[in-house]
Amino acid sequence: MPPSSTFGAESLEDIVEGLSVSDAEFVLDAAEQLKARLNLPRFEHSISVCRMARSMARIYGIDVVEATFAGLLHDWDKCFKGAELLEHARSLGIVLTAEDEKAEETLHAITAAKSLASIFPNLSESVLQAISKHTTAAVEMSELDMLIFCADMLEPKREYGGLNPLRKMIGSVPLEELFSNCYRKTVKHLVERRRFIHPMAASVWNAWVAQERDRQG
Q: What DSSP state is assigned to residue 170?
């Protein structure tokens, strides 16, 4: 029997619309597993990111199937936090730096990609990469990487201030510009909250600033 497309009061038919039978069955099965791992708000966030990623993929001409998979599964390891997350990372063979431990809230992206590669071996490298980069990002970002980063921030259940102007940019500016603005918002948020900024995040910010200056001449 195929997995149900209804989860409690919520139907997930929209996130499998247009997919092949096998891809739809994969999504619904993965959603069932995800719901068993995460608390309800985090699960609902994951579904909302998936919807946003699918919508943005159509707007920007990116593979909708890969956007669906990456959007749904990006927070697979959000069930871990603190010391438990650090131990989980080490159990996966991830070598942690002191900076990684100071910014442990970003590690779930890397551990999720590592775990999912074994749990769902048919996931493409591009999907796993987008999942791994959705917290700190990286100097080199594919279109799918940028899309998942932005969808994670801009999905409608996110309620912290200043996101609506960014949401209105979707489709009206190139994806690179949308990502740059989202990343600027992320860095500002970290600074205002006096949070530790991972060196990778600082490198990403510096690289994008340099690229913008080059484009402006």
A: B
The domain limits of the chain are: 6-216
Contact 180, 212 (CB under 8 A): yes
Contact 111, 77 (CB under 8 A): yes
Report how far residue 103's alpha carbon sits from residue 20's, in angstroms, rounded to the nearest whole number. 39
Identify the CATH number of the domain defined by range 6-216: 1.10.3210.10
pLDDT tens profile 71-101: 999 999 999 999 999 999 999 999 999 999 9
Q: Count how many residues are written for the chain.
A: 217
3-state secondary structure of 11: strand
Helix, strand, coil share of the chain (percent; to 5): 65, 5, 30
